[in-house]
């Protein structure tokens, strides 16, 4: 039986817009099983990034419940949330969010700094992750010496470094041409095959179809949750 790694119940979030409150999430509920690949889809402005930021513990809902590994994170204090984030969540952003002054290796090693690993352990792990994304030979370079597609692969290596098992991916191809976009999506499919749970926000229906399941948001609610035509291959 599959285990829920993430579960949200009746999430609500509103933002102040001038004099008015704009309800962005209006009672969103779903769960994600371990090892699933889920795409969150919906029109621009429907709240996809807001939802992903809440799932990634970068933002808090106004109400509702959020569980990671069956633990209620919406009730945790800031320190507990930070610990949960560094232990369980890897984030990949559209804009890569790499630190220009750090080498590629140091960017990937950064999430490990908060876990008490030695420098040698951090660098060895970072190199291992760079190997997984095919960029070990770029370890000593700086981000601006890489192409956009390579930078996104570095940011995926960084998300892998902490071995968190859950990867939240927000429009990873938004700043890439189609060739680099396809390479990044192929890498995500590979990581999923190796067991990573992936939650992807994308505008591109072609990429959304690579996911195991699509959760469609409209007007702040989940309007449908559809499985891909091809179910995931089951191990025999
Ligand atoms: N920090 C904020 N303050 C005020 N309004 C916000 C904030 N963040 C998001 N919003 C508003 O919430 C709504 C949803 O934004 P969000 O970025 O989650 O949508 P999205 O579905 O990811 O959009 P897109 O597909 O265009 O990236 C938008 O109307 C946006 O203006």
Automatic annotation (TrEMBL):
SMART domains: AAA
Origin superkingdom: Bacteria
Cross-referenced SUPFAM superfamilies: P-loop containing nucleoside triphosphate hydrolases
Domain annotation ABC transporter: ranges: 6-236
Pfam families referenced in this protein's UniProt entry, alphabetically: ABC_tran
Keywords: ATP-binding, Nucleotide-binding, Transport
Matching InterPro entries: AAA+_ATPase, ABC_transporter-like_ATP-bd, ABC_transporter-like_CS, ABC_transpr_LolD-like, MacB-like_ATP-bd, P-loop_NTPase
GO MF annotation list: ATP binding; ATP hydrolysis activity; transmembrane transporter activity
GO terms for cellular component: plasma membrane; transmembrane transporter complex
UniProt family annotation: Belongs to the ABC transporter superfamily. Macrolide exporter (TC 3.A.1.122) family.
Protein name: ABC transporter-like protein
Native source species: Rheinheimera nanhaiensis E407-8
Lineage, top ranks: Bacteria, Pseudomonadati, Pseudomonadota, Gammaproteobacteria, Chromatiales
């Amino acid at each position: 039986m599959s285990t829920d790694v993430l579960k949200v119940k009746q999430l609500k979030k509103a933002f102040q817009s001038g004099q008015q409150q704009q309800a962005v999430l209006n009672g969103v509920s779903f769960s994600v099983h371990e090892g699933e690949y889920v795409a969150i889809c919906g029109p621009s402005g429907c709240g996809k990034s807001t939802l992903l930021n809440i799932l990634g513990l970068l933002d808090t809902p106004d109400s509702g419940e959020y569980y990671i590994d069956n633990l209620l994170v919406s009730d945790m204090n800031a320190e507990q949330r930070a610990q949960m984030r560094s232990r369980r969540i890897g984030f990949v952003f559209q804009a890569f969010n790499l630190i220009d002054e750090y080498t590629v290796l140091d960017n990937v090693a950064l999430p490990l700094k908060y876990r008490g690993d030695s420098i040698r352990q951090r660098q060895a792990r970072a190199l291992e992750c760079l190997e997984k994304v095919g960029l070990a030979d770029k370890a000593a370079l700086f981000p601006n010496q890489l192409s956009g597609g390579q930078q996104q692969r570095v940011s995926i290596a960084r998300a892998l470094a902490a071995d968190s098992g859950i990867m939240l991916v927000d429009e990873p191809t938004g700043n890439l041409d189609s060739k680099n976009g396809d390479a990044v999506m192929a890498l995500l499919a590979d990581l999923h095959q190796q067991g990573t749970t992936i939650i992807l926000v994308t505008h591109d229906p072609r990429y959304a179809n690579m996911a195991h399941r699509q959760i469609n948001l409209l007007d702040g609610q989940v309007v449908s949750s559809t499985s891909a035509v091809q179910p995931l291959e089951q191990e025999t």
